[in-house]
Amino acid sequence: MLTGRDALLAATGHHPYVRHALRRDQAVRGWRREGTVGWLLPPGESSAGGAVGAPGPALDAFADLWADGTLRPGQSVNLPRATAAEVAARLPVARTGEWDFLWATDPPARQPGQERVVRLTGADHPALAALVEEAYPGTTSRPGDPGIVDWYGIRDGERLIACGADRSRGDIGFLAGLTVAPGDRGRGLGAALTAGMTRALFARYDQVALGVYTVNVGAIRLYRRLGFTGTAPRSPAP
């Protein structure tokens, strides 16, 4: 049994995903099984737990936790990449997804327009809400979310045309909800926003990360170009 964040970080070699997933003040417990390290989070988190390493031992461990009632209906876990069939064979899930946790260890090269990226305030929340609803209605990052540290954006005059959320937790920076107004895409604003936000977070953290669905190949190509070359393939099991 592994008790506490420090023990889990040591067991995983301070893996960037673990540094992000575990808050500094969390009372967390975990385990090591066949080279895979997993953990359970306290109640109230969006995910009940996660793991890094090989998917098979992680699935077996969470299947045992489901069987003994530790995991309950409606709770999700974030697993190393596994196929939908592998997950369904061990956990009673209706659907799974695939996303990549990407991280950078250095600030990106300067991008045209990145100087237009500014930190937003509470006064910008109505414009943020409107932009998010228009450009990225499926995102879970919205104004008023207590998990968001800051919002950043790009304006064209008085109009907000791009935005992104700082959802940093643990001890690395984390970008989320990056989006550009539909009518303003194709102008390099996504690169400018990502670069500007990443450089801002590197002023406070030694690594910066983000998550991206594997089907979003255009975004993945952009993030790779901007230095997000570290990769931890993930499979959430809701």
Tell me about this structure.
- The chain has helices at 5-11, 16-21, 55-67, 84-90, 125-135, 189-202, 217-225, and strands at residues 2-3, 29-33, 36-40, 49-52, 77-80, 99-104, 118-119, 150-156, 159-166, 173-180, 208-213, 230-237.
- The chain has 238 residues and is of the alpha+beta class.
- It has seven helices and twelve strands.
- It is globular.
- The protein has a twelve-stranded mixed beta sheet, sandwiched between helices.
Label this structure with key terms.
238 residues; alpha+beta; twelve-stranded mixed beta sheet; 7 helices; 12 strands; globular
Category from helices, strands and their pairing: alpha+beta
Strand content: 25-35%
Largest sheet: 12 strands, mixed
State the end-to-end distance: 25 Å
| Overall average pLDDT | 95
How many individual helices? Answer: 7
- Radius of gyration in whole Å, from Cα? 18 Å
Low-confidence stretches: none
Shape: globular
